[in-house]
Prior knowledge:
Layout: H1 24-27, E1 35-38, H2 45-56, H3 65-68, H4 79-87, E2 94-97, E3 111-116, H5 119-131, H6 135-143, H7 159-168, H8 178-185, E4 193-197, H9 198-203, H10 205-215, H11 225-231, H12 234-239, H13 256-259, H14 274-288, H15 290-296
Amino acid sequence: MHTDEAGWPIKTREIHNHHMDSTIWNDFRFRDDDIVIGTYAKSGTTWVQQIVSQLIFNGQAGLEVAEMSPWLDLRIPPKDVKLPAVEAQAHRRFIKTHLPVDALVWSPKAKYIYIARDGRDVVWSMHNHFANANDLLYQLLNDTPGRVGPEMPRPPADVRRFFLDWLEGDGYPLWPFWENIRSWWEIRALPNMLLLHFAELKADLPGAIRRIAAFLDIPIDEARFPRIVEQCGFAWMKAHATKSVPLGGALWDGGAGTFVHKGTNGRWRDVLTPEDNRRYEAMARAELGEACAAWLAMDSFAFDLPQAA
Length: 309
């Protein structure tokens, strides 16, 4: 990771593909209280967006979270449309990214939250996401002018085949997985960075919400906290998915409820072979190191993040 003299990450490259245009960050004008929510993809992004929205707006129902919290580096709509819309927001902004750290512009004043999930769980959620996407999603990704690189293909019906292609192709057909995890793990000790695990939210949602609130310097209104917790729960989010899913779920067969699918881990256990799992785990250790690989693989735990050396 390249850093400046003060130790802050420096952007060293651009990433373009069927989804992304990282150059938008070069023109984004930060505010000191901005919140950036980072993930690889299908790792709890929407969940953290919901939590942050509930904390900012103190348990208000009916928030249009997908509209309020855009995926900034998604190339659709283009940056000349997206940037003015984000600039016009008057509330505390909370923005989503799927980029590795070295493709971002880093603000020392903003707050960054990164949430990660076991790669096998990521793939199972991703397969549901793209297998149930309709023609409109693929048309937008593949036919909108400005795409760099190959088209986004439809996934095979066999989820194990999809997983093996993803593993051998390092994130195919999306973007590299290991470098994304590794880049955020490496900066976990920065004072404006919070590292979360999907399993932490599942194991203790109220505790995770309080931890996020403390990091964002948002005081908890105890009278409204039970409502906040309820509206950040999976059942509530699935029932109100049109508010948190892009375009209200219009890009998926079955609508927004397909996007907010099951929120469960371990569905791969009955599908992947022992050899498949050994290959994944060996690759995780080689790419991430023992400490990060062990942390990423946790299903549920009393959260105790290993600190940077």
